[in-house]
């Protein structure tokens, strides 16, 4: 039998987009968590108070946004 190459229905596309976009919060939590953790470790090692933790927060946001942008670009949503 010959298989037809039909496009997925709108419901399937909506579920795929919902699954992809639900990972946005996870991206931010993971990236900010990692950068804050590294900042706290650097603060403890260097004895700089909370300077490295703040730098970790300031670097975590752009890293999360860039990673999210790359993922959306991969799925051609941007």
Task: Give a nutshell description of this structure.
The protein is built from three helices and no strands. It has helices at residues 10-21, 23-46, 51-74. The longest helix has 24 residues, at 23-46.
| Broad structural category | mainly alpha
> What's the Cα radius of gyration?
19 Å
The geometry reads as rod-shaped
How many strands? 0
Strand content: under 5%
The whole-number mean of residue pLDDT values reads: 83
Which regions are unreliable across 5 or more consecutive residues at pLDDT < 50? none
Query: How far apart are the termini?
Result: 37 Å
- The tally of helices reads 3
Order of helices and strands: HHH
Query: Roughly what percent helix?
Result: over 70%
Major sheet, described briefly? none
Keywords: Membrane, Transmembrane, Transmembrane helix
Pfam family, one: ATPase_gene1
Transmembrane segments: 20-39, 45-69
InterPro entries: ATPase_put
Q: What can you see in these coordinates?
A:
This protein has 78 residues and is mainly α. It has a domain at 24-74. The chain contains 3 helices and no strands. The protein has helices spanning 10-21, 23-46, 51-74. The longest helix is centred in the middle third of the chain and has 24 residues, at 23-46. The protein is rod-shaped and about 70 Å long. The model has no long low-confidence stretch (mean pLDDT 83). Keywords: Membrane, Transmembrane, Transmembrane helix. It holds the Pfam family ATPase_gene1.
């Amino acid at each position: 039998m010959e298989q037809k190459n039909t496009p997925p229905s709108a419901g399937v596309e909506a579920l795929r987009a919902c699954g992809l976009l639900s990972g946005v919060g996870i991206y931010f939590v993971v990236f900010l968590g990692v950068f804050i953790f590294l900042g706290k470790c650097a603060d403890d090692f260097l004895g700089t108070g909370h300077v490295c933790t703040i730098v970790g927060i300031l670097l975590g946001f752009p890293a999360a946004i860039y990673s999210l942008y790359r993922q959306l670009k991969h799925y051609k949503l941007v």
